């Protein structure tokens, strides 16, 4: 199967990622200093959004992927947001696409930096968890509840994701 388009990875920024979710990082000053003055709390950084059910924390262990990466499929979760928090000091690949009348539009590729996490808004088309380095371990905060919360879309022609 041939590749239809090349996606160039961009550094992730809060502004560039805002239509798709929240960038979670240590930007700005802490909202509060706690723990006897030894800890800054950067409070409530993600818009967790669930139609029902509740927030749950799961641990994911994903195999690292290599670049160039072949993007064949995206998914979305219509009933809840989904946050990925790496548990290692590595960035990871984040792929999103705008919704175009129920199908994904042209995808975008971002790469986080060490110390950054992200939260997909509810219903955002996104690629699968794509660490670029081992060990690929993440804490994931998402909706736990009954009912279907996964839609997949397979592209007719895959995309090749690469660094500039």
Describe, in plain words, how this protein is organized in 3D:
There is one protein chain. The chain is mostly beta strands. It has one domain (5-162): Jelly Rolls (Sandwich), CATH 2.60.120.480. Helix content is 2%, strand content 49%. It contains one helix and 16 strands. It has one helix spanning 14-17; strands at 5-11, 21-24, 32-34, 39-41, 54-61, 69-76, 82-86, 92-97, 99-100, 103-104, 108-111, 117-120, 125-126, 130-131, 137-144, 151-162. The strands form four sheets. Strands 1, 6, 8, 11, 13, 14 and 16 form a seven-stranded mixed beta sheet that branches. A five-stranded antiparallel beta sheet has the order 2-12-7-15-5, with no helix packed on it. A two-stranded antiparallel ribbon has the order 3-4. It is globular, with a radius of gyration of 16 Å. The two termini are 23 Å apart. The mean pLDDT is 96.
């Amino acid at each position: 199967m041939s590749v239809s388009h090349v996606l160039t990875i961009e550094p992730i920024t809060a502004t560039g990622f805002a239509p798709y979710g929240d960038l979670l990082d240590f930007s700005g000053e802490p909202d509060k200093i706690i723990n006897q003055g030894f800890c800054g709390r950067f409070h409530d950084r993600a818009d967790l959004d669930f139609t029902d059910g509740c927030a749950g924390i799961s641990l994911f262990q994903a195999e690292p992927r290599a670049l160039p990466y072949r993007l064949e499929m995206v998914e979305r979760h219509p009933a809840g947001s989904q946050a990925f928090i790496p548990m290692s000091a590595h960035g990871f690949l984040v792929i999103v696409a705008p919704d175009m009348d129920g199908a994904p539009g042209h995808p975008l590729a971002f790469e986080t930096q060490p110390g950054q996490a992200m939260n997909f808004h509810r219903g955002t088309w996104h690629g699968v968890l794509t660490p670029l380095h081992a060990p690929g371990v993440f804490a994931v905060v998402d909706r736990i509840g009954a009912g279907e919360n996964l839609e997949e879309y397979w592209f007719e022609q895959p995309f090749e994701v690469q660094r500039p």
